[in-house]
Write a structure and sequence with these properties.
5-stranded antiparallel sheet; 17 helices; elongated; about 55% helix; about 600 residues
């Protein structure tokens, strides 16, 4: 209103100013009179009319111009208000929006789109996709813009791309923009992130697939009855159970009841009504008649949903084919009845058997008691035997030394008076006594494994190997043997007995070597809660039929002249291993070397 008043005032002033200038010119040039006189008194009537008309024209022109200016001003204000509302609207929308001209040059965008491009909204004007995206992607966007402008159609696109090593889905809608004449002047783009929607859709699809698999495996289908519109929907598995194609079903409760066995139909209806109007649980077994006339048994279970006023509006349920289960139940009932009859018939027999079993259990307990007593007796016998062996071996030491000494003294004193046979006899006696002495020593060591053993304590097996090799140093040098050992563990053992164990096994390998230089390898490995040790050699080997015999006391496979010994070494090894709750065995073939194994708890 202020602007309109100003324009009218300006028009009045302009009309009055024109009138004054006109009068001045007339007075000065035409009438040759004074200016104020002509303006007031001497103006011809004709000129007065003309001047008044000019003044009125200026006034009308001012009014028209003021109205036009006011309308344009209001139009501009309305346009600014509309643009402000439009800008506020697109800024509140969750989508990202941009506007391009027909050359794919950006005109404007909202803040969300600018934020993605890491710029301010006003900085996008004049830019193109090549300023923000790789050339390949920018070419794709430009081609799409040109196709939209060429054919004038809206493009609705869902596409995915990788952002920070994460899969992102975007839904984009691009539409052509027209001017007042209908010419395409640009492209409006709207897009938004649909990653979560895609994830949910994928999860839903996977859930539906799993549900179908579960339904197929369990032979269970589900149904949905919309009571208000009387529409009954079945899942695929129900159609399989009923042996129907979807187009063969009427999708109503009445169509379903047609498949219910006539004798069960009223019971099914009553159960449905009780669920709808009495709010009772719906769970029922009934028969259905398929199109081919066969009868199946199904179990149905459902839940009713009610409106705010208590009116039933929906019912969801499941159908499971239990025909085979019912058959099995009937068979089980028959078998149960049959078993009950058998139990009744054979009750006396079972009672007799029960008494017999009680007697047998009592006898078994007595037998177990005898076995326990026998084991205790055996343990006492073993202890006494060990004590006896120790006593015998110890008591025989002195007589044997006396026999050996007197035989050697007899040979020395009467050497020149004895013939060759006598000398041989004396040698036989000395040699036999010497062997007997070694056997007694071995027997003494054997008995002392249990009686003289020391408490177990942590023992470094590598150190034990070093002691055993040191004890056999002369024998190793004589045979030029190569003895190698891996890193061995530390275990709880009797250290002196473990030295004896390794020493006997290494000595055995040195004694029974072949023509090649003896090579002995010592290794270990963890087997569960125990350690297994191995001593391998390249010696003469052992025939498989003697693999157990070699661990028996005084058992030898070779003559004394060929391989001297007492037959006690491996027996002592076995005794030591058994005291440590382990096992010992050999893997060997004749002429292929041997590997002795033994285990000791970790």
């Amino acid at each position: 209103m202020k602007t309109e008043t100003k324009v009218i005032a300006a028009s009045v002033f302009l009309g009055f100013f024109s009138l004054v200038i006109w009068s001045f010119l007339d007075s000065y040039f035409f009438y040759k009179k004074g200016f104020f006189r002509l303006l007031i008194t001497d103006v011809p009537i004709r000129d007065m009319y003309i001047r008044s008309f000019v003044f009125v024209c200026f006034l009308i022109l001012g009014i028209v111009v003021s109205r036009t200016v006011a309308q344009k001003r209001r139009g501009v204000d309305e346009l600014l208000q509309t643009e402000h509302k439009y800008r506020a609207l697109i800024e509140r929308l969750p989508q990202k929006i941009f506007l391009k001209d027909k050359k794919s040059i950006y005109i404007s965008c909202n803040r969300k789109y600018a934020r993605d491009l890491k710029i301010k909204p006003e900085d996008i004007t004049g830019k193109t996709d090549y300023d923000f995206f790789p050339k390949e992607l920018a070419d794709k966007y430009r081609a799409l813009d040109q196709r939209i402008l060429e054919f004038g159609r809206i493009e609705d696109i869902e596409e995915k791309y990788i952002q920070d090593e994460t899969e992102v889905w975007v839904h984009t809608v691009k539409a052509p923009v027209k001017d007042e004449k209908g010419n395409f002047i640009g492209v409006l783009g709207i897009f938004w992130d649909i990653t979560e929607r895609k994830r949910v859709a994928k999860a839903l699809k996977e859930s539906e697939r799993r549900l179908k698999e579960v339904e197929s495996i369990a032979h269970v289908g589900n149904w949905d009855w919309n009571i208000e519109i009387s529409e009954l929907l079945w899942s695929d598995e129900i159609f399989k159970i009923f042996g129907l194609d979807p187009q063969e079903f009427g999708s109503t409760l009445e169509a379903f009841l047609e498949f219910v066995h006539p004798e069960d139909r009223d019971r099914v209806k009553d159960s449905i009504n009780d669920a709808l109007y009495k709010k009772m649980p719906f769970s029922i077994d009934h028969r259905i008649v398929l199109a081919d006339g066969s009868v199946r048994i199904v179990h149905e279970k459902a839940k009713v949903f009610f409106s705010d006023v208590g009116k039933p509006i929906r019912m969801l349920g499941t159908v499971q084919d239990i025909t085979e289960r019912k058959k099995m139940e009937n068979e089980l009932i028959k078998h149960r009845d049959h078993l009950e009859e058998l139990v009744k018939e054979h009750t006396v027999e079972f009672e007799n058997l029960n008494r017999k079993l009680k007697r047998e259990l009592a006898e078994r307990k007595r037998a177990e008691e005898k076995v326990r007593e026998s084991l205790e007796e055996l343990e006492r016998s073993n202890t006494e035997l060990e004590q006896f062996a120790y006593a015998v071996s110890h008591d025989l030491q002195e007589p044997l030394r006396m026999v050996t000494s007197y035989a050697q003294l007899l040979e020395k004193r009467y050497k020149d008076k004895l013939d060759d046979d006598a000398k041989d006899f004396i040698n036989y006696a000395v040699g036999g006594a010497t062997r007997m002495q070694k056997m007694i020593d071995g027997l003494l060591l054997y008995s002392r494994v249990q009686t003289r053993g020391k408490p177990f304590q942590p023992t470094d097996c590598s150190s034990v190997i070093g002691q055993a090799i040191s004890n056999l140093k002369i024998h190793i040098e004589e045979t030029h043997a190569i003895v190698e050992s891996d890193d061995l563990p530390t275990i709880n053992t009797d250290e002196m007995q473990l030295v004896r164990l390794f020493q006997n096994l290494i000595d055995n390998a040195l004694k029974f070597h072949g023509t090649e230089v003896p090579r002995i390898q010592i290794s270990s490995s963890k087997l569960g809660n125990k350690w297994m040790f191995s001593i391998s050699d390249n010696g003469i080997g052992i025939d498989s039929e003697y693999k157990d015999r070699i661990f028996v006391i005084f058992q030898r496979l070779h003559e004394e002249k060929q391989y001297p010994g007492t037959g006690m070494g491996l027996a002592i090894c076995k005794r030591i291993v058994e005291r440590h709750s382990g096992q010992i065995w050999v893997d060997s073939d004749l002429g292929q070397g041997s590997t002795f194994y033994f285990t000791i708890p970790a």
